[in-house]
């Protein structure tokens, strides 16, 4: 295919501004899906995704569109919207020449609109501003255009006015993509350079590698090489998503599709890698991606210790599909063998945990997440800490440093007061306020990352009746008065419950924590003391009194169905419990640390 007639673009937007709806419209108008499928999709999205093992809904779709008598191939590369996935967004953007930046006609520019626009600007894409939902009974179109100009620095006259839901202005979107997004560069006879921008494990076909061809041509049967590992394979199949997988003979410069090589060894395919021809390799690999930095860590342990290998396998499979999380085997006195996993944020952590439980069928115990800390030791060494257990004696620490985030809040001006208060409570440093029109503002703060990730989003939503949005970037580490707080249950330190916190908060949070634990841990035959301590010093204590009577006693001699029920219940209860010393600690207790804020 002549590159002149190819366009590669993404749709970026703040969540709910209409990306998926517009993607569906583009598929519908181009005939890639029928009206019936359009409706079905909305209903069946998840089951279809599961059944086919591939997102039908515009993950990466090649669309044919005829404009002024000429047929074009438009490759739409979808991007996720949440702050945790900036990395994924920039990855998709690197495979495009243009981006549609959607802005809700009422809500206007929001925190993720800014973040996504900057990500697109950074990789030099042509950005087409699109004001969506113009059908709404109340819109703020003039102000929204002004925000597009002042906040994003884009030309408001270039903005398209559409309603993705009602299909208004969609033809203009096609026209703008064709006229304003530059065609890809690249020669079909040059040595092959294909960017691996995603990959997926399919239990029948093995590893599916998603590529965007930069230079050269890839064909079925060709011997290719993954440049990073230097491994070579035959191309068994190649194809495009239309939106279903459809095989084709070759992909040329600018085209986007998948390749199948029968790779089963998951370690072989890396997102950001370059695929080249094994016989005539390209001289250099493509710049690839900056590796994302995991800032949030938590321990994941199988509830049943015999599931350890199963968990390792599943982590490996998942990491192929999502290269932005990390895992390393670790052991805990309390929880046995498990993994220390690194995530981009809390949402990312939740998703990984859910996917593991669903896809791998392993019950997990997860420890409370913590951010990465940095220590300057008295011996001059600096040390990264991903796990509170690794914090040495206070005596050997010169400086305890925590990650700092630069946070952009976009909010109604009525939210300014509450956010200033919140930021002050969270040890924030005020940077600036900029007014966007008459009743909205962009406020910038520097805040400890730990204070941002846990519940800042919820707090912001409640302070602004849902209208505020935030986005953040980690800008570095700063010294703070931090301490490690340990938890002792019946005199034994439970390593998986240790946390790092600010000294000024330690007493209050320590007290809340032991109170919570008291609620989570049920009564035993004996008294259980729960203590929070810094070093050897106890800062809070609660006691769980002993059970008075033996609950099983009443079953002796009782009828057998009742006994069976009780046993079944106990088995159920055992899932997600861990015996520690003589004390059973439920999964929820390990997360109490989080809620003790
Ligand atoms: P995404 O999160 O950016 O993918 O947003 P969605 O496409 O899922 O849309 C979010 C919500 O906005 C859905 O309820 C859509 O039906 C609605 N929506 C999308 N486009 C329009 C539009 O043009 N007009 C109106 N009134 N609603 C829309
Ligand atoms: Mg969506």
From TrEMBL:
Residue ranges occupied by any Tr-type G domain in the UniProt entry: 4-185
MF (Gene Ontology): GTP binding; GTPase activity; ribosome binding; translation elongation factor activity
Principal subcellular localisation of the protein: membrane
CDD domains assigned: EF4_II (cd03699), EF4_III (cd16260), LepA (cd01890), lepA_C (cd03709)
Signal peptide: none
Annotated catalysed reactions: GTP + H2O = GDP + phosphate + H(+)
Statement: the UniProt record of this protein carries the keyword Protein biosynthesis: yes
EC assignment: 3.6.5.n1
Classification via InterPro entries: EF-4 (IPR006297), EFG_III/V (IPR035647), EFG_V-like (IPR000640), EFTu-like_2 (IPR004161), LepA_C_sf (IPR038363), LepA_CTD (IPR013842), LepA_IV (IPR035654), P-loop_NTPase (IPR027417)
Enzyme class, spelled out: hydrolase
Coiled-coil segments: none
A single BP term in Gene Ontology: positive regulation of translation
UniProt topology in membrane: Peripheral membrane protein
Function: Required for accurate and efficient protein synthesis under certain stress conditions. May act as a fidelity factor of the translation reaction, by catalyzing a one-codon backward translocation of tRNAs on improperly translocated ribosomes. Back-translocation proceeds from a post-translocation (POST) complex to a pre-translocation (PRE) complex, thus giving elongation factor G a second chance to translocate the tRNAs correctly. Binds to ribosomes in a GTP-dependent manner.
Protein name as annotated: Elongation factor 4
Organism: Symmachiella dynata
